[in-house]
């Protein structure tokens, strides 16, 4: 006779799977740190640590420092200040803490917009891209988490927290400012605007705690100069593929402007759907994918942001059609596995690397998200499920 107080077999399996995935994320943090912080000193992390010390000493953050690292620092002066807790401890320990922050923030953020079982699925889907971001010791997993946190905070009417998350993300990489569009669904938009502007101003001025005003203004001028140069890049973006197709050297901004219009159009037109939790969550997924597809500085490790959007979208589906399975399979094979050892070397050399093909499946997934934002929902979609934080 079965004990009625014992957990159901399905519940037990779900908890075991959840624990297994969580352990994989933990192992990834340790393994990436051992590889990049102990086996050798990762260059990206050297750049971040050096920038914090350069800020303290009043040195130009954006000048070359070939004796310390190669390449340039490209983030804001505020990020250099916020990174200071990771610049002072020993290299390996600091990297372990930094990787734990990135992975932990993304893991928790996904759990804020999905129920537990669906969150486990999403964690499993985004795992390889999260690991790739950690191996490159970049901030992309943290940026994805901040965008999701902005959405979740606005959903719970935590205006200041959501605005602060957007401001922090914008001071790491500019494109997380797209998260401010989640305020469209917020009933007190003026309050959100005030909180966002105040957060951006306070964070922009925060380095004044350690550097004079004249020096800080010079840092921002240098940052603007290097950003202007980088604006000519294409990255792993829609603009790169348009350049291949049209065989022309179009500027990025018209394509990015069209992308913004396409992103916002269904939200602005379908106002009657704003009360639907599924509608708002699909828009979150669309923003995450957009931040990669129309970002002229997208690199392979940046895709953890877009894949997080696909993961949340796919994991949240209650009934998956063949088309949705096909879209997910294309993303998993053509985007997630594209830069992994699972992809044959000849395919990487002749397709994925020269044509930056991993953008294409993500773009198809983004178009599907946009289609779902435009289409009329069934009765089941109108009701907010238990996973809604509202």
Which descriptors would you attach to this protein?
about 400 residues; mainly alpha; 18 helices; disordered N terminus
| Tally of alpha and pi helices | 18
Strand content: under 5%
What number of structural domains do the residues give? 1
Q: Kindly, what is the distance between the CA atoms of the first and last residues, rounded to a whole number of angstroms? A: 41 Å
Number of DSSP strand runs: 0
- Taken from the alpha-carbon principal axes, the silhouette is globular
Radius of gyration: 21 Å
Structural class: mainly alpha
In percent, how helical is the residue content? Answer: 55-70%
Q: Main beta sheet, described? A: none
Mean pLDDT: 89
Unreliable segments of 5+ consecutive residues: 1-6, 379-388
Following the backbone from N to C, one meets helices and strands in this order, namely: HHHHHHHHHHHHHHHHHH
Architecture overview:
The protein has one domain. 68% of the residues lie in helices and 0% in strands. The chain has helices spanning 9-38, 43-56, 77-82, 84-87, 91-113, 116-135, 140-155, 159-172, 189-205, 213-230, 238-246, 252-269, 277-293, 303-316, 322-336, 345-355, 359-374, 379-382. Helix 7 packs across helix 14 (303-316), helix 12 runs antiparallel to helix 13 and helix 13 (277-293) packs antiparallel against helix 17. The longest helix is centred in the N-terminal third of the chain and has 30 residues, at 9-38. The radius of gyration is 21 Å and the shape is globular. The model is unreliable at 1-6 and 379-388 (pLDDT under 50).
